[in-house]
Design brief:
Number of helices: 13
CATH class of one domain: Alpha Beta
Distance between the termini: 38 Å
CATH topology of one domain: Rossmann fold
Structural class: alpha/beta
Shape: globular
């Protein structure tokens, strides 16, 4: 299946318009799955890195299915650019502050909610805001949509660093967060669990690390260092990642997996990737020398996605396709978001 799908992917991505088209192109499995969804479907936190492409992916899937599904993208929309981009592509937008119950009450009722809200960076400077965003907002949402199915995006940071040889944390592992952000992320999960148990709300928690776009992500950060002849530190020597379009698809297809008490699933790529090997491959693709510093630690932040893949299948976008796309994007000075993942952090301080 992977090779068949990969053949449909372009050899190169040369513009943001093409990137967005590829990112929001629905596969047949998603087109089939949206046929049963009721209107409106709400995407909360829809103006972040993943929300806009997720909303348009859903729009295109519903259109391909001949299903007049209303998709409502909810955010504070501090930038009108994201709002305009969504509305011109057939997605309804709704400005809302999820920290305010009065604002949340104005949202339309929905049987299906995709929750993408979270705050990670800047935690060290303003930890109280991180805790509010990752605890008050989930609690308010779970109260407001107690009758809905909710897919709640979480993070692999809820796990501790684990031995490389183990192959990544699994969903039944004890959560042992490192640092304030990771602790707040566990609190987010626990609050969804509390309301799910209290009200019978079906919830699926997806622990994501790391989504990859050409404008941000772990692969971009490594490629940028290679292209700029900067040293690549391999102390955090291994990682997982997944193409953002594939992650978006799985978020939607996880709606039937919601349960009370909540079900948790790791959402990432199938392979453990060596930072050293990734840097060397970028060096080949960019015809650049690669300078490595440090030595790989025995542990890393890794997740095992076998449980989710056993139900939904593996993501179709190959690592090699992502590497080639990212390398060319960097070499041609494609636009980036300036939002580093900080994947190399080992002390939990973001």
């Amino acid at each position: 299946m992977i090779s068949t799908i990969a053949a449909e992917l372009p050899d190169r991505i040369e513009s943001e318009d093409q990137l967005d088209e590829v990112m929001t192109r629905p596969r047949s499995c998603l087109i089939e799955s949206v046929k049963s969804l009721q209107s409106p479907l709400l995407i909360l936190g829809a103006a972040g890195k993943m929300g806009p492409s997720l909303a348009v992916l859903l729009r295109r899937a519903a259109d391909a299915a001949g299903h007049q599904l209303e998709i409502v993208a909810v955010s504070r929309f501090s930038s009108n650019d994201a709002r305009h981009w969504l509305e011109t592509r057939g997605v309804r937008t709704f400005a809302c502050d999820l920290l305010e119950r009065e604002s949340l009450a104005k949202l339309p009722d929905s049987a299906n909610v995709l929750y993408l809200v979270g705050l990670k960076f800047g935690t060290a400077q303003n930890p109280s805001l991180t805790w509010a965003a990752n605890t008050l907002a989930p609690s308010h949402v779970a109260e407001r949509f107690s009758k809905a199915r909710i897919v709640a995006l979480s993070t692999g940071n809820v796990y501790p660093l684990t031995p490389i040889a183990r192959g990544g944390s699994v969903e039944t592992d004890a959560l042992a967060p490192l640092g304030e952000y990771a602790n707040a992320a566990v609190a987010r999960e626990r609050l969804f669990e509390f309301h799910s148990r209290k009200n019978g709300t079906p919830v699926a928690v997806l622990r994501l690390n790391y989504a990859v776009d050409l404008r941000y992500g772990v692969l971009l950060e490594i490629a940028q260092k290679v292209w700029a002849n900067q040293t690549v530190d391999v102390t955090m020597g291994y990682l997982n990642c997944i193409w953002q379009g594939d992650a978006n698809e799985m978020i939607v297809r996880a709606l039937p997996l919601s349960a009370s008490p909540p079900s948790a699933f790791n959402l990432t790529g199938a392979k453990l990737l060596s930072v050293r090997d990734l840097a060397q491959r970028f060096g080949q693709l960019m015809n650049q020398p690669v300078t490595i510093t440090g030595a790989e630690a025995d542990t890393a932040l890794l997740s095992n996605p076998s449980r989710l893949f056993g139900i939904l299948g593996e993501p179709p976008t190959s690592l090699e396709a992502m590497l080639r796309w990212v390398a060319r994007w960097v070499m041609e000075d494609g636009r980036t978001l300036g939002k580093p993942t900080r994947f190399e952090v080992r002390n939990g301080k973001f």
